[in-house]
Amino acid sequence: MANATALDRRDRSIVTLAGVAPDLDGLGAIPELLTRNSAHPLEWFSRYHHVLGHNLGFALVVTGASFALATKRWKTAALACATFHLHLLCDVLGARGPDGDQWPVPYLLPFSHAWQWTWSGQWALNGWQNFAITGVMLASAFYLAWARGFSPLEMVWAKGDRAFVVALRERFGTPKA
């Protein structure tokens, strides 16, 4: 999504981070694991994953923050919002838990509890479909890195990103202009 239009490094990073922002509610797994055998276990992951960050309210926060932080504000915020919602759609399609239970998306929170996104055909998180999609997306990311000269690695390690692009271009040739 961050490569859908011409954006600078900062704006591409914002769009990318917006796509993983819903899973910030999954950080509750850490205190839950650390306190599971205590007298007062914290069930933050069990109760709040796919709840706190997987909804319209958080989408509005992420989109607003993207707008405020971006260079190309409207374009970046629109892509950030789309990426956020793509994450939710992917969770509805393929994020069934290891116990076979669905993780519905309470989309209208915090405004309403009236509607949750679910799909009876939701495949398991470790299903072949997710592995196939991951393979296609990795191939796409490698191709875009080769063709455009930057990869998602640029968000955390500019030197590593350059080395990665150089390695791709040495292996597969330089793209034609």
What percentage of amino acids are in beta strands?
under 5%
Low-pLDDT stretches are none
Average pLDDT metric: 94
Oligomer: single chain
In short:
The chain is an all-alpha fold. The chain is 54% helix and 0% strand. The chain is built from seven helices and no strands.
Structure write-up:
The chain folds into 2 domains: 1-123, no CATH class; 127-177, no CATH class. It has helices spanning 9-20, 29-35, 44-48, 56-69, 73-94, 128-148, 158-172. The chain is globular and about 60 Å long. Helix 4 packs antiparallel against helix 5. 54% of the residues lie in helices and 0% in strands. The model has no long low-confidence stretch (mean pLDDT 94). The chain has 177 residues and is mostly helical.
Produce the secondary structure layout.
Blueprint: H1 9-20, H2 29-35, H3 44-48, H4 56-69, H5 73-94, H6 128-148, H7 158-172
Helix pairs in contact: 1-4, 1-5, 4-5
Keywords, separated by commas or semicolons:
177 residues; 2 domains; mainly alpha; 7 helices; single chain; 54% helix
